[in-house]
Amino acid sequence: MRKTPLILVLAAAAAFGGFAATALREAVTTPADAHTPPTLALPTAATLPSAVAGQTVPSLAPMLQKVLPAVVSVHSKQRQRVNTPFGDDPVYRRLFGIPEERVLESLGSGVIVDAQQGLVLTNHHVIEGADDVSVTLSDGRTLKAVFRGSDADTDIALMQIPAQNLNALPIANSDRLRVGDFVVAVGNPFGVGQTVTSGIVSALGRNNLPGLGYQNFIQTDASINPGNSGGALVDLNGQLVGINTASFNPGGSMAGNIGLGFAIPSNLASTVMRQLLTNKGMVRRGTLGVATTDSNSPVGARVTNVYDKASGLLVGDVITAVNGQRVSSMDDFHNLEGLQVGASSAKLDILRAGKAATLNVALRQQSGDGASLDPRLAGVTFAELPESYRRQGLNGVLVASVSANSRAARSGLSQGDVLLEGTNGRFNDLTSFRASFRTQPQQLVFRVLRDERVGSIVIR
Q1: Alpha carbons 201 and 290: distance in angstroms, whole number
Q2: What is the pTM of this model?
Q3: Among 34, 298, 277, which Cα is nearest to 151's?
Q4: 241-272 confidence digits (pLDDT tens)
Q5: 252 close to 258: Cβ distance less than 8 angstroms
Q6: Short-list 308, 294, 130, 135, CA closest to 230
Q7: Is 407 helix (H, G, I), strand (E, B) or coil?
C-alpha cells in the first residue's frame, strides 16, 4: 500500500476541519429554516462607563485638562571650568584630552502663575548656579527663561518666559487646607515626562527637616520624586496650593518615594514672588531684634537679650506663638521669624512673669551695609546666614559682597566668608552682629570660616 504524502493529509485535514467548523457554526447561529449565509460577529472595544448604578464615575481628568498646560519642565545648564594639574597649558589639554569646561545639566519642574507676564515659579535649588535655563511646555514648545530672582531660605525662584498662548494656575489660599484634603502633584520625575500623582494632605506646618531653610511645609503622600521639584501641588478645583520641593527617604532621594513628600504653601510662595518682583530679585525680612534660648517650660522661646527696645519685649519673656503659630523652642521661633517675609508687624503670644499677654510688635528691616557699622567696613555688605547653615549648627553672618578696592578686601576678606566672632565677642546673627558695634574697637579682628577652614583676619 502506497503511503499518502504528508502534505496531502494536512491539506485534507485542513479542508475537512474548515468544513466542519463552518457547519457547526451554521447549526448554532442559523435557524433551521434559514438559507441565508451567516454573518460574523466581531468583538467590540470595551468602553469605560460614564456612570455606575446611576452615579457619575469620578475622574480627575476634567480638572487636569486645565492644570497640565500650566506645569512645565525646567532644564538648567551650568558650565564649570575643568582644572588640571598642568594648569591651563593647551598642549597638556590636547595631549591628555582634558576639556576646558564641562556642562552640568539638571532637570526640574515649574508652574506658570501669570500667563500675561509669563511668570514661572520653581525651586531655588532647581536653577541654583545655572548659566542657562529653558522651559518646555506641555505642548512641546521650549522657551528660554530669564531669571527674575530667588530666595534660598524658602527655596523659591522666579523666572519669566515669553508670554504667548500660555496657561496659568490660579493660586489658592493655602491657609484653608486641612489634613485629609485630597491633592494632586504634577511634575516631571526622573525626566520621564509630565506625571500626575494623587494623595492627601498628611500634615501641615512641618518643620525641623534636615538641610533645608525656613520651613512651614505641607506634607503629602502624593508621590514626589527627583524632578518633581518646583512642580505643582493642586487641590481638586485645579488651584495651586503648594510648590513641590522635597521628599524624604532614609535611603536617599534617588531611592524613590515612600509617601513623605513636602511642598511650600502657595501663600508663602506668592508672598516671596511679590518680594522678588518688588525688590529687584531680593527678599527683605524683618526682625524682632531679640535673642532667645529654649524655655524651661514645655513650650516657648525665652528672651535673653533685647537689641531693639521698641519691640516692647523684655528679657525673661517667653514667646509661645507668632501670628497664632505655636512656638515650641528657640529654633521654632527663629524659623517663624524668618518666615515673616515682607511683613511690617507680628502678633506675639507671650508669658511675662507667668501671666499670658499679647503684643503687636513692629518688625525692623536689617541693614547689611558695613559702613553703617564701622568706617573700616565701607564697601562690605553683610547678610544673614542661609538657614540651611544654621540647621547644621553654624552661627554668624555672611559676607555678601566686598568692593575690590575696599580696606576689607585688601585685608583679605572675601565674598562668601562666614564671620563667627569679632573683637567685641561672638554674635549669632545680623542683629547681634550690629549690636556688637555699639562700641567701636581699636583693632577690628574677625574669626572667619572659609572653605571649611577657620582663621583670623585683621581689617587694617
Answers
A1: 35
A2: 0.76
A3: 277
A4: 999 998 877 766 666 678 889 999 999 999 99
A5: no
A6: 135
A7: helix
3-state secondary structure of 376: helix
Catalytic annotation present for 202? no
Alpha helix locations (H) across 194-265?
Answer: none
**Residue 332's closest CA among 252, 382, 390, 280?**
390
The owner of cell 513636602 is: 262
The DSSP code for 152 is T
Check if 317 is active-site: no
Nearest C-alpha neighbor of 245 from the set 275, 214, 277: 214
Cell numbers given for 86: 598642568
- One-letter amino acid of 137: L
Question: Residue 122 — pLDDT band, cuts 50, 70, 90?
Answer: very high
Percent of the chain topping pLDDT 70: 82
Mean pLDDT over the full length of the chain: 84
Reported as half-sphere exposure (CB side, CA atoms, 13 A), residue 26 has a value of: 13
Locate 33 and state its grid cell.
429554516
The grid coordinates listed for 179 are 489634613
Enumerate residues 6+ apart whose C-beta is below 8 A from 377: 370, 371, 407, 408, 444, 459
pLDDT of 393-431, one tens digit each?
888 999 989 999 999 999 999 999 999 999 988 898 888
Choose the catalytic residue: 155, 221, 332, 417.
155
Q: What is the pLDDT of residue 441?
A: 87
Given the residues 125, 174, 247, 270, select the one marked as catalytic: 125
In whole angstroms, how far apart are CA 406 and each of 242, 379, 410, 450, 460? Answer: 44, 6, 6, 19, 11
Of 296, 298, 289, 332, nearest to 316 by C-alpha is 296
Tell me, yes or no, if 134 is annotated catalytic: no
pLDDT at residue number 17: 41
Instruction: Determine the average pLDDT of the residues in 38-46.
Output: 59
